[in-house]
Amino acid sequence: MNDELQGEVTRGARAVVVYPQMRTNRDQDADARLEEGKGLALAIGLEIADAFTIPIREPRAATLFGEGQIQNIAIACEQSEAELVVVDGSLSAIQQRNLEEKLKRKVIDRTGLILEIFGERAATAEGRLQVELAHLDYQAGRLVRSWTHLERQRGGFGFLGGPGETQIEADRRLIRDRMARIRRELEQVRRTRGLHRDRREKAPWPVVALVGYTNAGKSTLFNHLTGADVMAEDLLFATLDPTMRAIRLPGVEKAILSDTVGFISDLPTQLVAAFRATLEEVTAADIILHVRDIANSETEAQKRQVLEILTDLGVISEDGGEPEKGGEGGIPILEIWNKWDLLDPDHAAELSGLISEKGNRDVVPLSALTGEGCETLLATVGEKLMAGAKLYSFAVPAEDGERLAFLHARGHVVSETIDEGDETPVVRLQVRLSDRELGRFSAL
User: Fold this and answer.
1) Residue 122, CA distances (Å) to 143, 175, 255, 265, 438 in order
2) Bridge partners, 113 (sequence order)
3) Is 338 part of any known ligand binding site?
4) Of 12, 14, 169, 222, which is least surrounded by CB within 10 A?
5) Which domains does the chain have, with CATH numbers?
6) Which Pfam families does the protein's record reference (predicted)?
7) Does 259 count as an annotated binding residue?
8) Is the distance from CB of 357 to CB of 363 less than 8 angstroms?
9) Annotated binding residue at 240?
């Protein structure tokens, strides 16, 4: 992103963050949501001048807030010398324009703010295309803000537009055309990535996908396990595009660890659609590690948000169970209770008791920052990948390197001998393989 925020406000600008709490979400922790809004603003380099929650009894169609509430926002801006107002909620184009006129300041809503973050952090060609598509979709409904003072019409010059086409109609047409081109480009990127994913499924290494609420510590854990240098700042959406690295696991020669975009509450609709493809890597995983910030007061609500999107992706079923996937069973999910080092002793003891009481083998407490518990995690992932494995005997031509490499990487080789044979050497192996891996081996 350049130094201009939507062309009008510089990075480092002082901002007042306002969370409009509707009656429909009064059960949500307003303080936690306000902190998240501040985190979004900090993620694009804004300086928080003030932040507060405003309860909304009846949303005003023209401004969302009532006149008295707008006056309070204006006073806060004056007193804190803020030049920008961040509304951590959804504003219509008219509401945004009217608030800017009344407050005499730039106003950005939650969708616009997240788009700025995505635009700054998307690193791959697909990520940038997804950001542009979402941004065009967002701007298409806001052209009224840009062109209310330009009601001129353009005559029909063929390629410039039909007879009497207004400037706003022409711009909407250009946006639609650009969105169509981006969708075609994205489809090509998805096809290419699908081919890569098909090759990975045939490749000899299992895929382990990290998912979790944004800022839960996924990238820090990824860096600790792989030694990679993925952005792991204390910022929301520090990672947007999947990053993959090789790791070693007990009982498995090698695995691919994938770090994905963080989840967030109330993700705007056009962003869910635009970034769904980024999360498609999860559906090709052999095991999912759901990283939770266990020290966060909203950790249970954050967990629900993640599970909702995993359900939408078809990774888990509506009732919370794992769906059948290609006849091979669901994808195992392991919960990682990260930031264990931030818990007070009493809370840590209480949570440890819950794990022991339930005999839960699907939860691993750890600290990605200190590394405590990471060895246990690797051992548990190795066990999960080999869960339900059975002993099989194979005779593979010694020259078939692909199938031999698959068995060594995806299974646990118990014994291996070479039979010289009459024509070509044959490798005879006894290997423990899961049903899923046996199916993949048979497809080679």
Assistant:
1) 25, 21, 25, 20, 37
2) none
3) yes
4) 12
5) 4-118 (3.40.50.11060), 122-186 (no CATH), 204-385 (3.40.50.300), 390-443 (3.30.70)
6) GTP-bdg_M, GTP-bdg_N, MMR_HSR1
7) yes
8) no
9) yes
User: With a cut of 50, which residues of the chain have pLDDT below it?
Assistant: 1-7, 145-164, 320-329
Task: Quote the pTM value.
Answer: 0.67
426 known member of a binding site: no
138 is known to lie in a ligand binding site? no
The verdict on whether residue 213 carries a ligand-binding annotation is: yes
Q: How far is CA 425 from the centre of its chain?
A: 48
DSSP bridge partners of 22: 56
Amino acid at 318: E
Question: Is 254 a known ligand-binding residue?
Answer: no
**C-alpha angle with apex 333: 331 to 335, nearest 5 degrees?**
170
341 annotated as ligand-binding: yes
Is 238 known as a binding-site position?
yes
214 annotated among ligand-binding-site residues: yes
The answer to whether 219 is a known ligand-binding residue is yes
Smallest CA-to-CA distance from 436 within 394, 402, 403, 387 is with: 387
Q: pLDDT digits over 110-148, tens only?
A: 988 888 877 777 766 777 888 888 888 888 877 754 444
* Residue 262 in marked binding region: yes
pLDDT value, residue 309: 79
Is 25 annotated for ligand binding? no
Residues 6+ apart with CB under 8 A from 442: none
The verdict on whether residue 241 carries a ligand-binding annotation is yes
C-beta separation of 36 from 236 below 8 A: yes
Per-residue confidence (pLDDT) for residue 52, from 0 to 100:
97
User: What residues contact residue 169 under an 8 Å CB cut-off, 6+ apart?
Assistant: 161
Whole-number Cα distances in Å, 17 to 4, 20, 38: 19, 10, 7
Rg (CA), the chain: 26
CA distance 188 to 182: 10
Cβ–Cβ under 8 Å, residues 264 and 36: yes
Which tokens is 162 given? 């039909």
370-381 burial, b for 16+ CB within 10 Å, e for fewer?
eeebbeebbebb
212 known member of a binding site: yes
